[in-house]
Design brief:
161 residues; 0% strand
Length: 161
């Protein structure tokens, strides 16, 4: 159930689509972590964590963000979460490409391969999702962010979410 009363009806579907994508990508990561795929034992070239730990941590963050996006009463906050998440994904991809890492991003875990997607198709899908998050987050923040001012910040903090 969406508690978000500040959202217009079409924006609710937008929010549900963001949350749905986050839940699906998190579940694909968790599915991969439970397996014995070789790439889980390798270390991420940017964050220097094992891919198993990295995928688990990112899946938890994605599930938490999906819950926050659906539960918030403030559309600008959902936009802020999406921009934050999208910016982190973008910075990671830039760091991978600048570092010259040979290993591809395990964004979907091993599910992309199991679905018959090539690595290039998975990359295009993940880039599209990244652009969707950044554009949607920017839309929500610009559209509803003007309602947030220092004068009414105390009211926002006191309202139950």
């Amino acid at each position: 159930m969406c508690i978000a009363t500040g959202f217009r009806h079409p924006e609710r579907y937008l929010i549900y689509s963001f949350s749905g994508i986050l839940v699906l990508t998190a579940l694909s990561k968790l599915y991969t972590v439970m397996g014995n795929v070789r790439m889980l034992d390798l270390y991420d070239p940017v964050l220097l964590l094992s891919n198993r730990r990295l995928l688990t941590g990112v899946a938890v963050i994605e599930l938490f963000c999906a819950m926050l996006i659906v539960r918030t009463r403030h559309p600008w906050f959902a936009g802020l979460i999406l921009l934050w998440l999208g910016a982190n994904f973008l910075m990671y991809r830039v760091a991978v490409s600048l570092g010259g890492a040979i290993t591809p991003c395990p964004c979907l875990g091993s599910v992309g391969g199991r679905l018959g997607l090539s690595q290039s198709a998975t990359d295009v899908l993940m880039h599209s999702i990244l652009v969707y998050f950044l554009a949607g987050g920017l839309y929500l923040l610009v559209r509803h962010g003007s309602r947030v001012s220092p004068a009414n910040w105390r009211n926002l903090q006191k309202s139950p979410s």
